[in-house]
Amino acid sequence: MIMHNFKNLNVWKRSVDLAVNIIGETKKFPVEYRYDLSSQLNRCGISIPSNIAEGTSRRTKKDFSRFLDIALGSAFEMEAQLVIANRVGILENNKAKELTSEVMEIQKMIVGFKSTIKA
Known about the structure:
This protein is mostly helical. The protein contains 4 helices and no strands.
């Protein structure tokens, strides 16, 4: 049986920080984006650490790996949405670069963590 304390995982800690940052930024978005882009970014932000945490409760490496795949998919989805938010002008360039850099680092961390789960 595979078990990790998700609260000790650096990838989980970083993804929680990212989710908090995303929520803070989307609060600044214009009202007309509140139910689409803002909501979608928030859901992705919440999904990443949530799926990492849920995966730690799974009994097999295969199950855990599947939840890491879901977290990774949410991270890539977030990256795309950050591009859109920047291009429509509701997320300034510097903030978009900062958040994109962080989500890309988390993507790498998830991939690296996944490789240790398969070993």
